């Protein structure tokens, strides 16, 4: 076929190249996640006087494939690059990172602090990958994760649906807990 295309006039060769189809075995299907996830951003560094909490909270993007996650991760700011008093959230789609959201209303959170910006970036990436990869034993109990940048120390918080869920609480005490996974 290549020799046939080379003998045709240039305009026809370009049209022939455009109409060629790629075999199904060559095309790559995206790697779907178990559920959709949404990035949120909240910048409280310059609050408007009298503004209610959450008015600066913005939905950034919802994704459901591994490829979309990496495209977003590569293009967005890392938590260490955010201004003080900014929060970056990754929550299951349909759940807003607010305690008023019905999925979070009876929930709680597990927090870990970091005095090093690079530590926050590492914890953020590893926690996001564990969430979207469904690596937590009680994955259905987790709403999302928040990276909070503050002047004195940064914080990573894992939000849960049910603060009274003993299975989730006990799981945090095991060797796989967030505090034992990270050196801060």
UniProtKB/TrEMBL annotation:
Say yes or no: keyword Manganese present.
no
InterPro entries recorded? TIF_eIF4e-like, TIF_eIF_4E, TIF_eIF_4E_CS
What positions belong to coiled-coil segments? none
Molecular functions per Gene Ontology: RNA 7-methylguanosine cap binding; translation initiation factor activity
Q: Does the keyword NADP apply?
A: no
Per UniProt, the ranges with Low complexity bias are 12-25
Name the GO terms of the biological process aspect. Answer: defense response to virus; regulation of translation
Q: Domain of life of the organism in this record?
A: Eukaryota
**Which keywords does the record carry?**
Cytoplasm, Disulfide bond, Initiation factor, Protein biosynthesis, RNA-binding, Translation regulation
Q: Where is this region: Disordered?
A: 1-25, 161-184
- What do the Gene Ontology cellular component annotations say? eukaryotic translation initiation factor 4F complex
Q: How does it assemble?
A: EIF4F is a multi-subunit complex, the composition of which varies with external and internal environmental conditions. It is composed of at least EIF4A, EIF4E and EIF4G. EIF4E is also known to interact with other partners. In higher plants two isoforms of EIF4F have been identified, named isoform EIF4F and isoform EIF(iso)4F. Isoform EIF4F has subunits p220 and p26, whereas isoform EIF(iso)4F has subunits p82 and p28.
Family listed: Belongs to the eukaryotic initiation factor 4E family.
Q: Indicate what this protein is called per its UniProt record.
A: Eukaryotic translation initiation factor isoform 4E
- Gene name for this UniProt entry: IF4E2
């Amino acid at each position: 076929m290549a020799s046939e295309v080379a003998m045709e006039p240039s305009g026809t060769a370009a049209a022939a190249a455009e109409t060629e189809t790629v075999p199904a075995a060559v095309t790559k299907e995206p790697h779907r996640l178990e559920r959709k996830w949404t990035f949120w951003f909240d910048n409280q560094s310059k609050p408007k006087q009298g503004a209610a909490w959450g008015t600066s909270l913005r939905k950034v993007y919802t994704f459901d494939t591994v490829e979309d996650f990496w495209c977003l991760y590569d293009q967005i700011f890392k938590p260490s690059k955010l201004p003080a008093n900014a929060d970056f959230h990754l929550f299951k789609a349909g759940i807003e990172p607010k305690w008023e959201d019905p999925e979070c209303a009876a929930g709680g959170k597990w927090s870990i602090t970091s005095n090093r910006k690079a530590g926050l970036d590492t914890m953020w990436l590893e926690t996001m990958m564990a969430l979207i990869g469904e690596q937590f034993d009680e994955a259905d109990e987790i709403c999302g994760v928040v990276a909070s940048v503050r002047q004195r120390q940064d914080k990573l918080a894992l939000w849960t649906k049910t603060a009274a869920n003993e299975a989730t609480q006990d799981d945090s005490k095991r060797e796989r807990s967030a505090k034992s996974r990270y050196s801060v």
